[in-house]
Amino acid sequence: MKRLVLMVCILGCMAVSFGQICLNRAVGDGRVDSVWQAIDLPQAFTGDGVIIGFVDWGFDYTHPVFYDTNMVHYRVLRAWDQFKTAGPAPGGYDYGTEYVGAEQLLSALCDTSNCYNYHYHGTHCASIAAGAGAGTNYRGVAFDANLLFASLYLDSIQRVMDAWNWMYEVAQSEGKRLVISNSWGLYYMDNMDGTGLLANEMQRLTDLGVVFVVSAGNNGDVNFHVHHDFMGDGDTMRTQFVFPSSGSIGWGASISMMNSAQAPFEFSMMVMNSSFQTIAATPFIPTTGNDGFVDTFLVVNGDTVIYTYDIQSCNSFNQSPVVRLRVKQRSGYRFGLAVTAVSGSFHAWNVAEVTRTYGNWGGDFQAPAVHPDWVAGDNEYGVSTPGNIDCAVTVAAHTSRYVNNGGYMVGGQIASFSSSGPGFHSVRKPEISAPGRNVVSAISSYNSDFTGTYTKTVVFNGRTFGFAALSGTSMSAPFVAGVAALVLQANPYLTPAQVKEVLTSTAYEDQFTAESGIERFGYGKVDAYHAVRKALTIVGIEEHTEALETRYTVFPNPASGLCYITATTSGQTPCGLYDLSGRLIRSEMLHAGVNTLPVDGLPAGCYILRIMDPDNPCNQKLIIR
Q1: Which residue from 353, 379, 374 is spatially nearest to 364, judged by alpha carbons?
Q2: Over the chain, what is the mean pLDDT?
Q3: Which of 508, 495, 517 lies closest to 420, judged by CA?
Q4: Number of DSSP helices (H) and strands (E) in the chain, helices first
Q5: Among residues of the chain, what percentage have pLDDT more than 90?
Q6: Is the sign of the CA dihedral 44, 48, 49, 53 positive or negative?
């Protein structure tokens, strides 16, 4: 049962702590301050013992927020810069440069300039989730967590999967739970229904215990999606597509199209004059029999309009026809899309195609007044990949609710840019919302692009470091990643599915979630305090150290080859070795005295040894090397 929160009472009490330790009011909105203060909790939870990995770019390895709160102990374990070619690459990979430990990271200073120049995005996101504040009141959610940075090269799905797997391997070697925060998304990587190579890999790693948190996207205020249900032969949908604004880096538009499984379609691009009269058009191009990439052009009154298309007539993951059409912008013309099919539920998304980075911001589909039968766009089905993958915790953005200087409660509404659901397959997307508007956090001191205003600066080791406010679901996703780390510190034996259930079932509702609905907020606004409290009550594979200390001894730990379990109880007791997804790996029946549990041949990493004592079931974290 959800809780309908009376905002004036609850947030009015929490507002007292905003001026002490806060990240631009967000920690109060997300009930994080109550977790730090250990209100009716056995202890404060700050992310200690958990690793948060950030797949991003623009990392300042030297920023003091990545030390502990005393700015003494450095908390970044490793970084992998996929752009930097100097090497050495991480073990098992043949590209990029890996930095291991404080000395290498601090000597490297920051990730290299790439297609985003020297950016600041990754630093800002990581500091929201786990920055220690550097003596300011802009302290992140899980400020005692360890960190991993992967500067992502988004030119292939493989590089994304490599970054995830590298983080998993490091977390296994450290024997710690892992949360991976992804503040990025694309509308043409994998399938928009959340299936594909990336989805399969995310699910595989989720089954191994990794918690994935992903931003929903920033197209909630753009009608960049169009949908049509085809009703028979001759049924044709037409719409105008507007080129997204991209400034000097703009090339044109990228339109991703998908129909139902086993439902082929044909499409045509139309060039129109200012009166929306078609003056040139491509032939209708069928998805059947045209698999592959085509780079071509259309001549319009002596002008050349360049376009490309890439067709999969039957995608191997969802059996749907999938097309990506890219059109280079030409001034003086208007452009339209026509699609025809016998049947199927057709969807298309219109986003920027740019020259030096990866466009993910939308442009409208419109129905000109002179064509009343054309289809206008909407903002629905707006969650991008990888946020559209079922096992991800996908995060929308809202404005923090707080008491202003005049004593009035303000904020709380959905951020207009926050991408809207629904998701496919009856999966609720996004699942949860967190503060994502004007969130103050750290900015890379090595950036080359930031033109905003610093809210605060600090001097550390002779260098000036800044903090500034940014907005986006890029900011709300790491906030929830930090909350997930608090949950895992409270109960490190939860499966990723349990972590998601804890977060969504404790999310709070208010008048703003009621107004904007589940397609914008998901299950509601993240509530770190009640999430931690619920995590502490879940038995599952929860550890009972008293029973272990008095009845059972596990040695050695870490182990390799054999693990010895000494039991002081009489009779026989079942014992199982589980991976972090809850899957049984080995089982033995314990008897009084010394027992052996073979662990040879198992991958190195963290496991759960569960002893099913009928009087007091207990569990032990077991590290295998």
Answers
A1: 379
A2: 91
A3: 517
A4: 13, 32
A5: 75
A6: positive
